[in-house]
Task: structure prediction
Amino acid sequence: MIDYKINGKVAVVTGAGRGIGRQIALTLAEQGVKVVVADIVKESADKVAKEIVLLGSEALPFELDVSNSQQVQEMADAALKKFGGVDILVNNAGISPKRNGQKVPIIEMDIREWEKVVDINLHGTFYCSQAFAKIMVKQNYGKIINMSSQAGRSYSAIPAAHYLTTKAGVIGLTRALAGELAPFGINVNAIAPGRIETEMIKDVGAEVNKEYMKKIPVGRLGQPRDIAEAILYLASDNASFITGVTLDVNGGALIL
Ligand SMILES: NC(=O)c1ccc[n+]([C@@H]2O[C@H](COP(=O)([O-])OP(=O)(O)OC[C@H]3O[C@@H](n4cnc5c(N)ncnc54)[C@H](O)[C@@H]3O)[C@@H](O)[C@H]2O)c1
Result:
């Protein structure tokens, strides 16, 4: 196992109850990182926190909706109280609503659905970044990693306009945060995953995902671990000269 020298650091991972977020939380814990396991589903957060303890690290499960700025502040306060600081924030929580497994057409999109996706994917990322940047500025140290998407990089036939828009917005927010926070020893980067095998992509059906695989040069779908490995690097001081970038982790999907 590579030693990223992050043993003893404290991380907050949102949407850590399952999928990519869960794997990020566990992979950080394997490196000795203490993790705040934040998710809107309490039972999932509790379960992942227990897995982390079994790995020999410490965890704080926290139930919240990232689109609620008050709950985000309560999480920041709780993290500070429990661990005394926060070194790493992974803004992973996100949603991609479909209709019967299909993209929702723009002209049929309910404004409330648009707002919900913007609230969680974009506002949630902003609220968490702001709350934890305040802590990191005082420490003069921090790593913030935002979850964008291949859909934020190029047009996609699968997710809808709200998802593409918010994931492109996350890239802009990453640059803004990186520029403002660099003087305070804080690195801010984004990851743009391609198609990763989690519950999120199952709603479109196996056939669609199989077809999609043909557009991935490495010939397979991504696994949550592919993303977690990239997070380890960006969360470590090996990447201290990298800020404001969006790292594509997609098996080469964008070169075609
Ligand atoms: N799976 C993919 O192919 C893929 C590709 C590109 C980007 N992403 C992004 O990666 C991230 C994780 O995706 P995933 O595939 O693991 O999704 P997932 O649906 O499997 O898991 C998302 C987790 O976030 C939690 N969550 C949802 N809304 C929340 C909220 N308001 N507050 C707190 N927690 C909330 C869910 O309960 C769940 O545990 C998302 O931001 C997603 O957009 C995924």
Observations:
- The radius of gyration is 17 Å.
